[in-house]
C-alpha cells in the first residue's frame, strides 16, 4: 500500500480486527512506539499508556480479544508530513455478550520510517461506559 503511512496502519488495523489477530497490526508499529489510549482504565485495563512495540501489541491483543469490529468510519482526517489526525466512529460488539458498542475516537499519530511511532487516542468515555454497562449512569443534578 503506497502513500501516507496512515493508510498502511488503517489497513492493518482493519485486517487485524477482522481476523482477531494483533500480529496483523504489529508490522506497522515502530519498535519505539509511544502508545496511549485515554479512557477508564479501571473498567478497561488495556487502555492507558504503553511504551514499545511489545507493550503496544499486548494492549492491541487484549482489545481485539474483547471486541469484534463491526464498522470503522473515518469521519475526518488531517494528514501532515509524518503525522495524521483522525476522528473515527467505530462500532463493535463486546466479545463477552455480543452487546453493540458505538464510540467516537479522536486519534493523533506520528510516523517515522513509514511506521507508527506515536499514537494518542481520546475516547468519548462517558458514552462508552454507559454502553458497556448497558444502562445510563445516574449523575447528580448540578446548579
Task: Explain what you see.
It is a single chain. The longest helix has 15 residues, at 5-19. A six-stranded mixed β-sheet has the order 2-1-6-5-4-3, sandwiched between helices. Helix content is 27%, strand content 43%. It is an alpha+beta fold and 143 residues long.
Helix-strand string? HEEHEEEEH
Order of strands across the main sheet: 2-1-6-5-4-3
Question: What does the main sheet amount to?
Answer: 6 strands, mixed
**β-sheet strand percentage:** 35-45%
The value of Rg in angstroms is 15 Å
In terms of quaternary structure, the protein is single chain
Q: Helicity level, as a percent range?
A: 25-40%
Q: How many β-strands, per DSSP?
A: 6
C-alpha termini separation = 53 Å
- Given the structure, what is the number of helices? 3
Helix/strand layout:
Blueprint: H1 5-19, E1 29-38, E2 48-51, H2 53-66, E3 67-80, E4 83-94, E5 100-112, E6 115-123, H3 125-133
